[in-house]
Amino acid sequence: MLTIFVNVANINHYVAFESHLIEYCGNKPTLDIFQLSYFMDLGKYTLDTLQIYFPWDDDLYTYLKGKGLMSKNPKLKVLPLIYSDNCVSTQGVQQIKRNYVIDPVLYGLHESQLGWQRVGNKDFIIPAERPQLQVIPEDGTIKFKVIPKVNGKNEYHIEFSVMSPFGKIYSNWVAFYLPINSAKELVSKLVYHYKSLYKDEEVIPELNKESKQAQREQMHWAFTKVLSYCFSIAEFDYAVKYLKESGVAGTMPSLVFNANNPKHTQVMKPFIKLGMVETREEAGFWPRNVQLVMKLAQDKIIVGQRGKKIKVKGFIDDSGLTENYVQVAVPNFLKALARLRAWYNAQPYFKVKL
User: Fold this and answer.
1) How far is CA 306 from CA 195, 259, 316, in A?
2) 55 with 80: CB under 8 angstroms?
C-alpha cells in the first residue's frame, strides 16, 4: 500500500497532479490509497463591519508619544481606530452618514479624493466599505487575515474613540462581522475541509450572552483559545498618514500575541468570542440581519506603564510587521463552531441556517 502526501497551492493544482499520477501509475495494485495534505485558503469574505480599537491599548499610546505623537501637530493627539461599514449589506443603502470620523484634511487628503461628502463641520457621508477576511488553513491552525485594501482601494476609514478613557479596561477590541449568507458559505467550507475532525453537538448547548447598545444588540457566543495574532497600524494607510502628521516617526508598531511566549501569557489571556449577533430596530438604530461575529477579547488586568489598571491588547512590536490576523487551533475552533451552530440552528426565528 502506497500513501502519498503532497502539498499543492489549490485544488485545481491537486486535480492536475492526480491525473498525471494516475497516468504514470496506471492500475498498479500498489496504489491503494491516495491521501492529500494541501494548503489552500477557504475563501475571501466581504465583511459587514471591521473594528480595530488601537486607542484602547494604553501602553500603545505611551509608546507613540515617545515616538513623537503630537510633536508636529498638538491637535492630533488621539489614536485612530479602524472602522468599516458595508452599509449596502447592513442597512440597504449605498452610503451613510457617520459620526466621529477623523477629518481626512488632517492627514493630507480631501474628502472628495475618498468619494465622501462633508456634512457640516464634523460629519461625513461615506459609501459602503468592503474589506475582506481571508480564511487560511495552516499547519493545524486557521488563520483569519484582514484585507483592508481591495483592488487598490482602502475599504475602511479612521475614527476617534469617544470611549478611549474607558477602553483601557474593556475586553473586546477587535471584531469581524460577516453577513449570514457569507457565514453559511464559510461554515460549509470549514465543515467539509475538516470533515474528519468536525463533530456536531448532540444537544443544544447553553452559550454565553453579551449585550450592548442598551440591549439593542444581542450576541450569543462560544469560547475559543487564541494561538497568535498581529494587528499592525502599518497596513492602514490613513492611520499611518494621520500619525505621521501628528509627528510619529519611524516604523509603525503592531500589537501582537503568541501563546508560546511566556512574557505574553504572563500579562494577557486573549480569546475569541465566536457568536451570532442580532440587532433590533429602536430609536436611532437600524435593524440588521443576523450576523456571524468574531470578537477578540482579553480579560486580564495589570498595571500599565502610566500606573493605571489596564487590559493589555497586545505586546508592542516595532520590527516592521504589516499583517493583521488572528490564528486559532483547529480542534478548539471547530468545537466552538459546533456549539454555536447547534444553538443557532435550533432557534426557530432564524430563517437561514448554518
Assistant:
1) 49, 25, 15
2) yes
Q: What is the pLDDT of residues 298-345, one digit of tens each?
A: 999 999 888 889 999 999 999 999 999 999 999 999 999 999 999 999
How far apart, in Å, do the first and last CA atoms of the chain sit?
39
Residue with cell 487551533: 329
162 and 245 housed in the same domain: yes
Measured distance CA(162)–CA(164) in Å, rounded:
6
Helix (H) or strand (E) holding 88: helix 87-90
* Count helices and strands in the chain by DSSP H and E runs: 9, 22
Cell 470611549, residue?
Answer: 163
Considering the domain architecture, whether residues 48 and 18 belong to the same structural domain is answered as no
Residues whose CB falls within 8 Å of the CB of residue 102, separated by 6 or more in sequence, listed in order: 80, 157, 158, 159, 160, 238, 242
Residues 262 and 298 in one domain: yes
pLDDT tens, residue by residue, 158-196: 999 888 777 889 999 999 999 999 999 999 999 999 999
Number of structural domains the chain divides into: 2
Non-local (6+) Cβ contacts of 43 within 8 A are 134, 135, 185, 186, 189
Q: How many CA atoms lie within 13 A of 276 on its CB side?
A: 25
In this structure, are residues 272 and 336 in contact, taking their beta carbons and an 8 Å threshold?
yes
Q: Are residues 25 and 139 in the same domain?
A: no
